[in-house]
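We modelled the chain as a single entity of 381 amino acids. Its sequence is:
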Amino acid sequence: MRELNIGKCIIQKRKERKITQQQLADYIGVSKASVSKWESGLSYPDILLLPQLAAYFNISVDELMGYSPQLAKEDIKKIYNKLSHEFTVKTFDEVMEQCNKLIKKYYSCFPFLLSMVQLLLNYSGLIKDETIKKEIFQQCILLSRRVKEESENISDIKNANTKEALAEMALGNSPKVIHLLDNKLAPYSGDDVILVNAYRMQGETAQAKVVNQILLYNNVINTLALLHNYLSLNMKEPVLFEKIYSQGIQIIESFELTNILTNDVFGIHSTAAQGYLIQQERQKAMDALDRYVNTICSIQFPLSFKANEYFNQVAKWFEDNNCIGTNVPVDEITLKKTFICIVAENPAFTPLREDERYKLIVKKLKEKLGETDECNEYRKS
């Protein structure tokens, strides 16, 4: 009961109505001393009096008690960013305890639950104990299923289904992932163009432009992600591999994606380097690593989603529709370590360890991001 703010609420509502403690006491049928104790926090009204008090002030019982099962988007962002930072300065168990308390408190706030699933998936790499890691993934699955079963928001339900699939993938349950994502590939329906044209028909040209840009952005990012994945699937097909990588670079350059924070913008280059090494194309591998490092070094800190001249409406859309807004889902310290470790600690690049050009590439990256003593060494759970 310590978190309840009944006393403060009674004071506020009583003053708004300009009534005395005695008047409120007379209405409820208690002593003035009882009202005084409520307001000072020395005691709480009997549970049977709560509906009467709430009705008198024309508010809900939840509002009277100072409890809200829902969080505003800004509150969710603040909590996510706070916990994200704490994962880097505290033990996993300490932060996890906070997460569980908040999950229990806001169990009916589905956007918040989804943000917690995203947080846990993003920081699961900090857990060394495989048993605990599996428990976290199972928790993510259960939270995602709760949203799917209880929410009436289609967007939340789709988001929850995707996050459940990610957790199942982390557990190695590929059949469940395929089932969740429905392995039925339907032909292109043109829904996106239909939506844009509907706005045009209503004379809402400005909104049609915004929607068109956002849909185009999503399709471009998805195409790049698929090309990146396709690249990794074709490492032993040199001709096709070269073509896919070239197409990825063209998309990045054509749509000015270098400063847009999405994994595939820089990840495609490290994947290309690995593929070239498999093909015994050492210099091409170095060139790809150069592109990776140059991309990382062009990133401006502190990190957040930044619009470019082509996609100038997307940042606002992110801010309005993403539970963490334009902020990145992982804290800056962890990201920098990851950027460095992808090159410096990746076993795939072992053949390059003694190469002077490779050493210069790693040095450049570390100087830009700051030397780190740990890559894969995370705090114990």
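As a brief sanity check on the tokenised model: DSSP finds 19 helices and no strands in the chain. The mean pLDDT is 89.
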